[in-house]
Amino acid sequence: MNILRTIVEPSLELALADIGVEADFWKKALGVSREKDQGDLSLPCFAFAKQLGRNPADIAKDLSQTISGEFDVSANGGYLNFKARSNWLAENVMDIETSPGNRNVLIEHTSANPNGPFHVGRARNAILGDTLVRLNRLFGNDVRAEYYVDDMGKQVGVLAWALQNLTKQEVDAILDDEDSINPKWSGKKDHETVRWYQAAQSLRSKDGADDIEQAISKLVHASEHGDNSVLDIFENAYKPVLDGMLETLSRLGIEFDTFTKESKFVVDGSVSSLMEKLSNLEIHEVAENGAHYLDLGQRGLKGKTEFFYRRGDGSSLYATRDIAYHMWKWTQCDDLVNILGEDHKLQAKQVGMTLTELGQKVPEVMFYAFIKLPEGKMSTRKGNVVFMDDLLEEAKAHAAAVVRELRGDLSDDEIDTISEAVGVSAVRFNIVKVSPDKGFTFRWEDALSFEGESAPFVMYSHTRACSIARKVGRDSIPTSLGEVVPAMHELLRSMASYPDKLHTAVSENKPHIFALYMLELATAYNSFYRDCHVIVDGEIDEFNYAVSEKARELLCKGMEGVGIIPLESM
Hints:
The protein is an alpha/beta fold. It folds into 3 domains: 2-84, Gyrase A, domain 2 (2-Layer Sandwich); 104-266 and 334-377, Rossmann fold; 388-562, Orthogonal Bundle (Isoleucyl-tRNA Synthetase, Domain 1), CATH 1.10.730.10. The protein contains 23 helices and 17 strands. The longest helix is centred in the middle third of the chain and has 24 residues, at 228-251. It is flat. The two termini are 33 Å apart.
């Protein structure tokens, strides 16, 4: 709770100086208490023991008796604990600063191969990336959300070949209509086109597919040499699919500021220039087949130490183009963040080490673990996926059933609006609240849960605050402090932590920290709503109303930060 730190540190600094503690190394050790009942801030005194020749517990006890201020101080073993007083919190939380950032940040996320509809596995990248974009904006940073379009890879080549060489009848025959299109998505190009991709993959897996492989390889090879005619064929193949994917993402509230094609760096000469620079590096090597690589083992890389960047025929690899892309991205921002699956760790390490060799900065990376189905890993190639469009429809239908049961007085249009917002929010939050480095198995019952640690729980807390505001019908009026009961104190404590949780989530690229905080804030508000009535016998308790309005503001901003749609009623 940094808001408390501003008054604790000066008193603590004087007290430590009095007992002979030199320097200010202790400021880094002063942090949020692990246990709420012990206080808001805690300082371990073990580091002072050697310098002072005293027991840490005795040091903490003595300090607790000499430090004073608008806070309570206690000692517990070797720890010195500080707790904000209710009245001080009430006076200071109302003006809490929520937007201190000033960095220019580029966040590249999603960048999924445009070969079929979004499935739940792909969506984790998109939802985590968009949430990080939102939180950075909430923090006050100038943020650009970037989509890197794979417009020349093998998967686009497979799709382009299929669209050129297979009729709809042939595709249906190859797939034997095992996975026919949901009539709901008839006409949505990503759903229609994925069948061509799956059919081509089926043909490639069979004996005697050498001619197909050669044709696809020829297309990909030409694209890697910047052949504009082939690149146009590729774009005509993937663009309708990408548009369909973006339509799905838009329904999730995910938008992008810029789209950058992989081919850009081949066509504009960046890749050729880069390969020349790489060939002049000290760790440059040439393989027997004429391919060029960097021996990153000389720089300490373990395992796969050869980083190939040029084929024997002179064409570039994806990794080469990725480095050129990164060098360009660094001209666009102060801070660069990539959202990548855990299977990209080696590649990201190789790219980072190569950038260092070139005198470039290394981007930050948020790695995430994959979502699985109960029966195993999702794969567009195999067709064993849960499409995001289907999930969102299921979520909306489930929400509509709940809303209709609870609010039979609402019109069909009102139910439709609420259920869409609740369904989308529930799906997003189910993914955001889990730490990125933790994988989990996707289950319908979890994604669509409206109980406990869910988006609807947070949304309902916000609508409660909105309901109070509607009943009062005006802004809150500055007033003197009233009685601070335990439920209000806990809400004030939670609100005071808002900027701290936001800062941690942004600085550590961990959106789940703020998502879990929103659950905490909603829980605290519900207790406040129960115990601290704003309207009593027709009279407005101005103090309680002011606190409720501040909570409503923070709930609304925080919900937008994690992608929960803040409805005013539900």
